[in-house]
Every structure is written in structure tokens, then in C-alpha cells.
Amino acid sequence: MNFSKCRVCGERAIIDLPRHNANFCADHLLQLCRRQVEKAIKDHEMLSPDDRILVAVSGGKDSLAIWDILLDLGYSADGLYIGLGIGEYSDVSGEYTRAFADERGLTLHTIDLRDEYDYDVPTAAKVTRRVPCSACGMSKRHLFDKAALDGGYDVVVTGHNLDDEAAVLFGNTLRWDVEYLARQHPVLPARNGFPKKVKPLMRLTEREMAAWCIVRGIDYQVDECPMAIGNKHLAYKEALNSIERESPGSKSAFYLEFVDKMSPILAGLNQAAAGELNRCAECGAPTTGDTCAFCRLHERVGGHEPVPVEMVLNKKARKAYLAAQAAGE
Ligand code: SF4
Ligand code: ZN
Question: Which protein residue's CA is at the shortest distance from atom 3 of ligand 1?
């Protein structure tokens, strides 16, 4: 039978990676992923061997994979999962995260928005009349920062991969949003009461992370968040994937060359924007005003009756969500 061979050992390959112009067997795929993470960590001074690391885990492939890779590389890392209250999607994501941590005897901190702050993402979206990702992203950033500082962690690791970062870069570039471009770096140093945050998967794609999980036997939430369907981020990913199909390697060149060549030029702008901040009167978090954005959101949306997920989806997302619900029944 005809099968493609691993570039490294000649054994049967399980994946072809056109951007490396090669195929890899399971062992050498794992080796490639480890090496790419080690390179990102070394090149950008992301982690030190004795850092206390907090991994932001969502239950999806990327965050579970980076937690696994860091442990595999000998780092000591705990996880933090935030229950966002996005219907069945959140329920299943939480189950995968807890199972991963339990099976390996890892420390997993959990925060449930509804239990602890009396709101959830769909309700926040409905009350504020903004897209769900706005309240969601802000809540996650605030709670990860707070948990890292309260827990004495040195650094927060997130599972953003090459596809995510390239899509964000694509959007920022389409608008020439210089402020966002200046901040788009795989390392945000600790400053002004914010913890250090790093993205060690910056050199690896979604497909490679899915393969890592399959080879390592990690079960993860396969479904996209229903709120993401039809959003620009996914459209940018699709656009980049179609360029990548025509010209393998374009996606990584677009993002990694940006980090190497443009980030140093833009760094000055970022520092100029980082002035002294006030402390939030409610929670003490750094803020430009008197009260931080999270406390203002909490004040506004906390205590409202829960809103079902489908109430806050755009038309395309609602159609897909209801069809998936019906198929699952
Ligand atoms: Fe939150 Fe939006 Fe991501 Fe869903 S897609 S988890 S709502 S940021
Ligand atoms: Zn606050």
C-alpha cells in the first residue's frame, strides 16, 4: 500500500504539513510541536524554568494542548477555567477541562460567572446591547489577571495559536489600527498592576494542535463557541486559509515576520501609550478612570435574569445553533 513517509524517520506519516513541505509520524509531529513551543519561549523570553504559571483553559484543543506541552517540557503549571454560561457549549467545555485536570492530578481553579458575579455572557450581551465577545473578552481578561495576581503566579499563558494571531493581525492591518498593531505581541510584560501574559503557541497552527491532542489522547470541546459563528475573526481565518492553500507558508510568514520586523518598530508607540493608571475604587484593578470596566459591567448586568444563548446570536449563528440543537436531540 502507498503511504507517505515521515520526513524524519521514514515511518508511516499521520499528517502532511505543506508549510514545512513535509509529512510527519506521530512521534515526530510531537517533537515538532515541542520544538516550536521551546523556540517561542526562548526567542521571546516567555518563561523561566521556576516560574509559577497559570494557564487560561477553555476546554478547547489549544489551551489543553499548551497546558500538556508545558508540563511535558518540565514546567509547573496550574489551570484556570471560567464558566461563561454560554449554554451547552460552556457545560461541555467545563467537563473536558475538569476531566483533563482530574486525570492528571493537576490544580484547576474555576470561576463561574453566574455563581460568583450573578451574570453570564449571553445576559451581559443582551443588557449592554453589544456583541457577546465584548463582555466575554473583557470579563476573561479581568478575571485571569486577578486570579494570577491573587494566586501569586508569575505569568499567564494563553492558547492563542498562529491562526488566531494571524487573523487578528489581518483585521488590524485591514484597518491600519496602529494602536492595536503596537500591542499585538506574543509577550505582554508585567506592568502597572497587570500580570505578564504570553502566547507560546504563536508558531503552531490549529491543525497541528488538533493533531497534538489526538496523538496524546486529549478529549476537547470540538465545537466553536456559538457566539463566534459569522464573526469577522472567522472570516479572516478563512481568507488566510485560502491564501495559505495557494501559497503554503504565507500565514506564518505574515505573522512571524510581523513580530520580528514590525513589532520592534511599533514598540515605542506602545510604551508611549502606557502611562500611570489609577486603581479601581471597587476592586483595586488598574484602570484609566475611577472604576474599572469589569466593575462597571458587573454593576450594570449583575442580577439580571439569565438570557438564553439563541437570543443574542446573529441571524447566521442562530440558524446554525438551532440546527445543531435539533440534530443533537
Ligand atoms: Fe467569548 Fe466570543 Fe470567544 Fe465565545 S467567541 S468564548 S463569546 S470571546
Ligand atoms: Zn474594578
Answer: 133
The model's pTM: 0.95
Whether residue 1 is predicted with pLDDT greater than 50 in this model: the reply is: no
pLDDT single digits (tens) 75-126: 999 999 999 999 999 999 999 999 999 999 999 999 999 999 999 999 999 9
Ligand 1 atom closest to the CA of 58, numbered from 1: 6
Smallest-distance ligand from the CA of 289: 2
The per-residue pLDDT for 244 is 97
The percentage of the chain sitting over the pLDDT mark of 90, rounded to a whole number, equals: 87
User: How confident is the model over 293-322, as a mean pLDDT?
Assistant: 91
| Cβ of residue 214 lying under 6 Å from some atom of ligand 1 | no
Residue 126's CB is within 10 A of a number of other CB atoms, namely 19
Q: Is the CB of 132 under 6 A from ligand 1?
A: yes
133 touches ligand 1 (CB under 6 Å): yes
Instruction: For residue 167, give the nearest of 263, 221, 231 by alpha carbon.
Output: 231
Candidate from 82, 133, 142 with most ligand 1 atoms within 8 A of CB, to mutate: 133
Cβ pair 16, 23 in contact under 8 A: yes
CA of 132 to the centre of ligand 1 (A): 7
Decide if pLDDT at 230 tops 70.
Answer: yes
By 3-state DSSP, what share of the chain in percent is helix, strand and coil, each rounded to 5?
Answer: 55, 10, 35
Ligand nearest to the CA of 93: 1
**Is residue 163 pLDDT above 70, yes or no?**
yes
Stretch (H or E) spanning 304? none
Gap between the Cα atoms of 193 and 149, Å rounded: 8
- What is the SS3 assignment for 279? strand
Q: Is the pLDDT of residue 150 over 80?
A: yes
Given the candidates 3.40.720.10, 3.40.50.620, 3.10.450.50, 3.30.2290.10, the CATH classification of the domain at 15-328 is 3.40.50.620
